[in-house]
Amino acid sequence: MADFRTHFTTACTVSGIFATTALYTGEITLIDTVLIWGTGTFGGLLPDIDSDNSITLTITSTLLAAIIAIGLGGYLASRVPLAHNLALITAVLWFFRGAVIPFFARITVHRGNWHSLSAAFLFAFCITNCSYHFFEKTASFSFLLGLNGGIGFITHLFLDEIFAINLASLKLKRSFGTALKLWDFSSPCLSTLLLALCAVQIYYLPGFQPLESIISKLLETTKMGLG
Ligand SMILES: [Zn+2]
C-alpha cells in the first residue's frame, strides 16, 4: 500500500497536469484552475478515509471537514446573517466529527467498498452536482471539477494496486485487486447502495452535451499542446 506522501505527491502532480490543461481550454479562470487542482489532489487522498491508520484518517477527515466548512460558509454567506452562518458551520462540523466519521469508520473496512471505482464515480458525480446546483457554477467548470476529483481518486486506487505488486519477485501481495474494483463481493449491500447512489447522481448531472463539449476541448488542447 502506498503511503500518504506518495499518494499526495502523485495526486498533486496528476491533477496539476489536468487542471493546467483545463486552463488552456479557455473555459475557466486561474482561480477555477486552483480549485480544480485542489479537488483532484484531495480526491487522491480521500479513499484512505476508511484507513485503520489514525494519522491518515485524521488528516483526511480534517481536510474533508475544512472543505465542508468552507463550502457551507460560502454557500450561506449571501443567504443568512454571519452569526447564523457561524453557528450552522459549527453544528455541522461537530456532527461530522462526532457522528458521521465514527459511523463511517464503523461501517467500512479498509480496502472495502470505499476503495472502488463506484466510490470514485460517486465522488465525481457529487462534486459536479454540488458545484452546478448549489454554487450555481457553469456546467463546464462543474464537470472539470468532478472529472479531476474522480481522476485523483482513481489515481489513488491505481497506486494502491501498483504497490500490491512485489517488484523484486514480481509476485502479487494479498492486497492486490482490492482497490481497483467495481464491486466488493464481501459486502454486496454496500456495493449496491453505492451503485444506486451513483444512478441518482447521474440523474441530476447538468446534461451530457456540456460533458461531451468539455472533453472534446480537453482532447483538442492536449493534441495542440503535444503537436
Ligand atoms: Zn488506499
TrEMBL record:
The chain crosses the membrane at residues 55-76, 82-105, 117-135, 141-159, 180-204. It comes from the Bacteria. Keywords: Hydrolase, Membrane, Transmembrane, Transmembrane helix. Pfam families: YdjM (PF04307). InterPro entries: YdjM-like. GO terms for molecular function: hydrolase activity. The keyword Membrane applies. This is Metal-dependent hydrolase. It comes from Parendozoicomonas callyspongiae.
